Amino acid sequence: MAIQPIRLFGDPVLRQRADEVVDFDKELRRLVEDLTDTMLGAPGAGLAAPQIGVGLRVFTWNIEGEVGHLVNPVLELSEDIQDGTEGCLSIPGLSIDCRRALSVVAKGFDQHGEPVTIEGSELLARAIQHETDHLDGVLFVDRLDTERRKEAMRYIREAEWFGLEKPAVKVSPHDTFGLGF
């Protein structure tokens, strides 16, 4: 329905565990539409409800032209690991290698309360893990090794947008690798 402002690193909502969705109603469908519109407008590969200030366990993704959403996700991760570039719409302009499970089976619900299972590998698996982390108050920089985390935090501290009370932009203008989540 509408593009919403994306919350930036430092906003407390990004560090809180989101609540389970219990009402699969018109408001939830509007939230899924807003998440989708905001993600596509950014552009990003995924967006979680806390990133637009809503503390519910809902996220969207856009991987290789497939747009979807998942409510109340529960993940089963593979033991196989992948390293790859990752970014985040809540940390504009930062792209850095991050280790994730190679594949994932995500179980949850669609916006109508119907059970769904999403199986993905590589980029889809990365997006699902990244967005589920957002629902748990975890940012991808928390998953970096010590050296990469220091590099990421240095970038954040020096970023023009860091420390602003209100987001300077509605969506990230910096998605260099097309991997903003």
Describe this structure in words.
With 181 residues, this protein is an alpha+beta fold. The protein has a single domain, classed as Peptide Deformylase, CATH 3.90.45.10. Helices cover 24% and strands 30% of the residues. The protein has three helices and seven strands. The strands form two sheets. A five-stranded antiparallel sheet has the order 1-2-3-6-7. Strands 4-5 form a two-stranded antiparallel ribbon. The longest helix is centred in the N-terminal third of the chain and has 16 residues, at 26-41. The protein is globular and about 40 Å long. Mean pLDDT is 90; it is low at 166-181. Removes the formyl group from the N-terminal Met of newly synthesized proteins. Requires at least a dipeptide for an efficient rate of reaction. N-terminal L-methionine is a prerequisite for activity but the enzyme has broad specificity at other positions. It catalyses: N-terminal N-formyl-L-methionyl-[peptide] + H2O = N-terminal L-methionyl-[peptide] + formate. Keywords: Hydrolase, Iron, Metal-binding, Protein biosynthesis. It is an enzyme of class 3 (hydrolase).
